[in-house]
Amino acid sequence: MTTTRRRRQxxxxxxxxxxxxxxxxxxxxxxxxxxxxxxxxxxxLLHESELNLPACIVKWIDWPVPVLMATxxxxxxxxxxxxxxxxxxxxxxxxxxxxxxFPDVVPTxxxxxxxxxxxxxxxxxxxxxxxxxxxxDRAIAALVMKGQFPLERxxxxxxxxxHCHRIAPERVG
Length: 173
Known about the structure:
alpha+beta; two-stranded antiparallel sheet; single chain
């Protein structure tokens, strides 16, 4: 499914899209760790902290490949609705975020940001050294001090977990 087609589905069929997302969630995931309110609080805190976090990687529950996009600001949120408006992908439901990651390094050229990412390709290798550092450690400190978020520090950056996958039961015998 192309990004344009996904955007069109969300804009033209919000009720059907939400029902489809809920069905997918019940089938594939065990628990939701982030509500719409927690996502809004997290993005607002990051925006108000004035940290250098120009880009993030988002993995949606209904999209197989993570995408690199500009970090959403508080102005992109539309309370009380649980939607976020992004320049690259249009509006999407906060509840459809499986995880959001803030990498330690991001491309410095804005037009290179909104590319789909391969599963195991480091950002440095993809952009041949034209990358800048993000203030990930300061973001972790700010988020730990202000709220309880499911944070995971990885070798590549900070990941916020929105939903946990189901664990397949072990077969005995």
